[in-house]
Write a structure and sequence with these properties.
TIM Barrel, 5 helices, 3-stranded parallel β-sheet, globular
Length: 137
């Protein structure tokens, strides 16, 4: 995925949390190899986020919804998903922002649609506290 973004274009970062600090540098290196070194990347991330306060992990509504959709055990997705309060999710997204991600598409799973909208809004507010100082750099 990183090679594709660097050589062909696009800007969606895979959820590579453990290796994330290197992902944007790897994309830039791949772009330079094919003469795209001056590309102004606009990295984004699409991520499922569970906002239910009732349970986390394999027993959460988030896990059940993903398993029903993908017909695959949640354990295979868990490292690519975030769960918790809006502040927790914003904290988990912060490393992506710190390494160049500026667009976040959150697929929320909460108690109901109003709860999901409120949680995404709160997450956005908390994430702005990280993004605004970064934008000034």
């Amino acid at each position: 995925m990183v090679t594709h973004v660097g050589t062909k274009g696009g800007s969606v970062l895979p959820a590579l949390q453990p290796a994330l600090p290197d992902a944007t540098a790897m994309i830039q290196a791949e772009a330079e190899l094919v003469g795209r070194g001056n590309t102004a990347f606009d990295h984004g991330l699409v991520v499922w986020c569970g906002f239910s306060g009732r349970a986390v992990g394999t027993q959460s509504p988030h896990a059940r919804e993903m398993e029903a959709l993908y017909k695959t055990p949640f354990e295979k997705f868990s490292k690519y998903c975030f769960e918790g309060s809006p502040a927790d999710v914003a904290e988990q997204l912060a490393p992506y922002a710190e390494t160049g991600c500026r667009r976040f598409s959150i697929i929320p799973v909460g108690d109901n649609i109003d709860h999901e909208i409120d949680c995404v809004s709160e997450t956005a507010r908390d994430l702005r506290r990280v993004l605004v100082p970064l934008a000034a750099r």
